[in-house]
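# nightly structure sweep
# worker-07 picked up a monomer target from the shared queue
# config: single-sequence mode, recycle default, output format = structure tokens
# input follows
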Amino acid sequence: QRLDIGRRIYDGEISRYEAAEEYVINEQTARNYMRMYRDANQLPPKQGRRSICAPSFKKAPAELDELKAMTKEELIQELIKAKITEARLKKGYEVKGDGTVILYGNKIIK
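# output follows
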């Protein structure tokens, strides 16, 4: 079963976080199962993917019904937030929390 969990993670069927939740194991244990599968089958290590443009405060896209229920002022505020986020990403930085911490690449500036 460990190698099967590892295979599913290695093949990208599920993430190690999903595997941890599905099989009620630790995320690091799921990672170790994937490594065991990889080593048992002499497979190359997977190349990780990092997303540098995803803001930390990004919310799920609003449903059409939610947008219809908003007032004109609320819609304008959401549009302003989206424009600000887009401009920040173009400049290469991200604001965390209430805006007191700014993240440039990997450097944190307060």
